[in-house]
Amino acid sequence: MKSLFIDLLADYIGHFGFLLMIALAVVNVAKKNRKNKNAVRTLVKNQNSNLNEPVSLHPEINPALCVGCGSCVNACPEGEILQLINHKSSLVSPTKCVGHGACEQSCPFGAIDLVFGTKTRGMEIPRISPDFETNIPGLYIAGELGGMGLIRNAVKQGRLAAYHAISKLKNVKRTTDVDIFIVGAGAAGFSATLAAKEHHCTYRVIDQNTFGGTIYNFPRQKVVTSHPLDLSLAGQVKFKSNIVQKEKLLEIFSQIVERNQLVISEKENFISLKKLGNDIFSIETSKGVYTAKKVILCMGVRGTPRRLGLANEDLPKVAYSLIDPSDYQNSAIAIVGGGNAGLEATQYLSKQSLKNKVHLIVRGGPEDAFSRANEQNQKLIRELEKKKQITIHYNSAVQTIEKDFILVKKFSHDLKLQNNFLFIFTGAEVPFKFLMSLGIIIDKSYGEKRKLSMAQY
Ligand SMILES: Cc1cc2nc3c(=O)[nH]c(=O)nc-3n(C[C@H](O)[C@H](O)[C@H](O)COP(=O)(O)OP(=O)(O)OC[C@H]3O[C@@H](n4cnc5c(N)ncnc54)[C@H](O)[C@@H]3O)c2cc1C
């Protein structure tokens, strides 16, 4: 009797287990179908709104190699830019791609190539070899100046460029002031300097501003997302759940500088360089002239902020970066720019405790004004707008800057806004003309593949 009961129970559990498996499979298929539909909807919506041209380095997916595993979808730090459509990865929100390259590195099947520009929209980019060497032997470019964003990419490229340069040092017989000259002390330059020190090379690293580069200029307490960073001499630097505040990141970097007694020359501007013979460089800076066997340019792309080109833009109330939001209280503030930098500044400055009246001025309409910003920032801005904590002026542009007000052109009429501070976040002048003056070739890329040896060493 007991064994009959156990048999029946086992039978029942067996059936139940089977049904449960079927139910889970059905739920899973329904979920995938829903995701597929959403992805198609996003793709079509972006195509119809002309948001189908990526503006920087972006993935090109080879459908013949893509097996639809979704590792690239999960790897993208910017949210749902890549999605699976019919079991193949697809770039559904191209304008939001900022060229991290995490998708390429995550694909186990080599189905993703990173490309600049598209067949219809060319993009300028310095010519560099897979080892980050420019067309001028011995002169390297690493970090965001080479076209790829993110701190961890800059760190990796700085290290790899330096390792390649170091491996070629023995070919240079002439004596120089230093082995390696590094321009820029942001993430890439810092990492290159550590690599030089690790290999007992002599070096000089300069920065026109301050150690830390773009990170230093982030707003106070900005949350930075980053995967672990591999730094020469320091090993792997890990963060709690991949997020860390700007101050903490700079503190970690500064401790590494101190521990390794790195010497960084701040407030020293790189002016020019030339080759002395075939193998060494003469570098002119605001503090002197130096010779070096190798030069690594880690100058980033934000040295010169893009201006509006208006009269009175030099007034002290106009700024191109925001470091400490608490410096701005009880004020009428306008922010120009719908990218991440503009949206983040708007969030900080509209904190209720600061009691500011904040206007965000953007060129696009409600549909596409924030197409380049990440989903999180878009969501937060929409919430602030809904709560009436900020006023967003769509299809608008600043026309006139005066001491106490600005005139904003909105459709056919002008709007006069009281204004104590004006923040402009419309990108930066990429220093390609300067690079060309040094003899570096700038290519216009129409979707050609770009292979960098990111996986080496
Ligand atoms: C608003 C915003 C938010 C971001 N958030 C994140 C994030 O959360 N996570 C992330 O990983 N990345 C983020 N990024 C991107 C990341 O900050 C950059 O990709 C990275 O810091 C670039 O490092 P870099 O060393 O190449 O250049 P930079 O950090 O820009 O350093 C370049 C340095 O070169 C110096 N320089 C330039 N020209 C000269 C010259 N002529 N002479 C001497 N020195 C010179 C500059 O002063 C600067 O210090 C963000 C960027 C922005 C703008």
Based on CA atoms alone, the radius of gyration comes out at 26 Å
CATH third-level topology of the largest domain: FAD/NAD(P)-binding domain
Question: Which structural class do you get from the secondary structure elements?
Answer: alpha/beta
Unreliable runs: none
Strand content: 25-35%
Oligomer: single chain
Task: Write out the distinct hetero groups bound to the structure.
Answer: flavin-adenine dinucleotide
The beta-strand count equals 28
- The general outline is globular
Distance between the termini: 69 Å
CATH class designation of the largest domain: Alpha Beta
Overall mean pLDDT:
90
Helix content: 25-40%
Looking at CATH, the homologous superfamily of the largest domain is: FAD/NAD(P)-binding domain
Number of helices: 10
Summarize the structure.
The chain has 457 residues and is of the alpha/beta class.
Question: What do you see in this structure?
Answer:
The strands form nine sheets. Strands 6, 7, 8, 13, 14, 15 and 16 form a seven-stranded mixed sheet that branches. A five-stranded parallel sheet has the order 18-25-19-20-21. The chain has a three-stranded antiparallel sheet with strand order 1-4-28. Helix content is 29%, strand content 26%. The termini are far apart. The protein has helices at residues 2-48, 71-75, 102-106, 151-167, 187-198, 213-216, 246-259, 340-349, 375-386, 432-437, and strands spanning 58-61, 82-85, 88-91, 112-116, 123-126, 139-141, 178-183, 203-206, 223-225, 229-231, 235-237, 243-245, 264-265, 270-276, 280-285, 288-297, 304-305, 318-319, 332-336, 357-361, 390-393, 396-401, 405-410, 413-418, 421-424, 428-429, 442-445, 448-449. It is globular. With 457 residues, it is of the alpha/beta class. The structure holds flavin-adenine dinucleotide. Flavin-adenine dinucleotide binds next to helix 4, helix 5, helix 6, strand 9 and helix 8.
